[in-house]
Amino acid sequence: MQDQLVRAISKDGFVKATAVSTRALTERARQIHKTTPVATAALGRVLAACSMLGNALKGEGASVTLQIKGGGPLGTVLAVSDNQGNVRGTVEQPAVELPLRSDGKLDVGTAVGQDGTLTVIRDLNMKEPYVGSVALLGGEIAEDLAAYFVESEQIPTACGLGVLVDRDQSVLAAGGYLIQLLPGAGEDIISKVEGGVLSAGSVTSLLSQDSDPESLLRRVMPDFELEILETSPIAYRCYCSRERMERALISLGPAELQSMIDEQGYADLTCRFCDNVQHFAREDLEALVQGMGKKK
Fold first, then answer.
1. I want to staple 10 with a disulfide (CB 3.0 to 4.6 A). Which of 15, 88, 111, 272 is the partner?
2. Nearest-angstrom CA–CA distance, 229 and 65
3. Phi first, then psi: what are they for 103, rounded to 5°?
4. What is the reported pLDDT for 294?
5. Per-residue confidence (pLDDT) for residue 208, from 0 to 100
6. H and E: helices and strands count for the chain
7. Which pLDDT score is estimated for 220?
8. Are residues 175 and 265 in the same domain?
9. CA dihedral for 74, 140, 48, 118, sign (positive or negative)
C-alpha cells in the first residue's frame, strides 16, 4: 500500500485528527542514510510527525522543519515537510547501535537523548519563519511533540508514533497519529480521547494489522464519529537540484572556489537528504568564479 495521510474531524466538532502510514518513505530514508535499527526508528518517527505538521499548512510553498537535539548519540534528527505532507530527513549519526530496552524494544529515548530541545520551524513564505521550541521530556518523540503543542500553542494533544524494524533491518511498518482538541471540548471529550488511545495499544501493532491510516484513526478513536476531510498520498521527496548546489558553491566565495580548483580541480556535492550527487568539473567551477567576477 502506498504511504498515505488522512485528516478527519469528529462530527461533534470538538476533535481534529491526522494519521499517516509511512512504511515506504521510512524504508527509503533507511536506504539513503544506511541507518541502524534504532536510528531508523528515531528518524522514522520524526518523518511521520513532520509529515502531519506539514500537511496542516495552507500556503503554497510553505514548509515545516522538525528538529530534535537531545544530546544522545544520534545527534541531531531533522525532517522537513512540504504543505502536502511529503517529507525528507536526516540523522547526524546513522550508524549508532544500542542494546534493546528491558522490554525488548528499540531504545529510541536513549539514542535521541533527553537533555535538549524539540524545535518546530514553520516557513509560511513571510519575512520570518515561526519558531517554537520546548525542552524534551523523554526523547521518545511522540510525547515530546504532544508537550510542544500544549506548551507552545496551548492545544491539548495526543500523539502516537511508531516504526517496526524487521530482522533484516528493513521497515515493516511505520506511521502515527495526532489528535487535538478544538475550542469547547469538555472533560468528557478528553476522557474519550484518553480512553481510546490507551485501549488501542501501540502504533506499530495497529499498523501491522492494517496499514490504512483511516483504520488507525478509527481504532484509536472508537467513541467518535469521524468525518474524513482528506486522504492523500505522501512520499519521501527531496527538492534538491543542480541549481541549488551551484548556489551553495557560489556562497563559498571566489577565493574558496579558486582554492578548490587549484587543490582538486573538481567538486562532488551530495545532498544531505537524499542520495543525489552532482559532479562539478574544473570548467564548471571556473565558470562560476568568472560569473562572480562579472557581477562585481
1. 15
2. 24
3. -90, 5
4. 66
5. 94
6. 10, 12
7. 97
8. no
9. negative
Residue 265 Rama label (left phi>0; alpha psi -120 to 50; beta): left
Q: What is the pLDDT of residues 161-184, one digit of tens each?
A: 999 999 999 999 999 999 999 999
Reported residue count of the chain is 296
**Which residue range forms the structural domain that includes residue 280?**
242-294
Cell numbers 508537550 label which residue?
147
CA-to-CA distance for 136 and 82, rounded, in angstroms? 24
* Spatial distance between the Cα atoms of 151 and 137, rounded to a whole number of angstroms: 12
Same domain, 65 and 148: yes
Question: Cell 530534535 identifies what position?
Answer: 68
Residue 98 near residue 41 (C-beta atoms within 8 A): no
- Rounded Cα–Cα distance for residues 191 and 250 (Å): 56
Same-domain pairing of 79 and 167 = yes
Q: Are the CB atoms for 122 and 94 separated by under 8 Å?
A: no
Do 275 and 180 lie in a common domain? no
| Total domains, the chain | 2
* Rg from Cα positions in the chain: 21
Q: Are 257 and 229 part of one and the same domain? A: no
Instruction: Using 70 as the pLDDT threshold, list the residues of the chain that sit under it.
Output: 294-296
Amino acid at 246: E
Instruction: Check if the beta carbon of residue 17 is closer than 8 Å to that of residue 178.
Output: yes
Q: Dihedral angle at the C-alpha atoms of 240, 246, 250, 252, nearest 10 degrees?
A: 60
For residues 192 and 10, the answer to whether their CB atoms sit within 8 Å is no
What is the model's pLDDT at position 174? 98
Whether residue 79 is found in the same domain as residue 178: yes
Q: Are 193 and 283 within one domain?
A: no
Q: What is the pTM of this model?
A: 0.89
d(CA 174, CA 25): 9
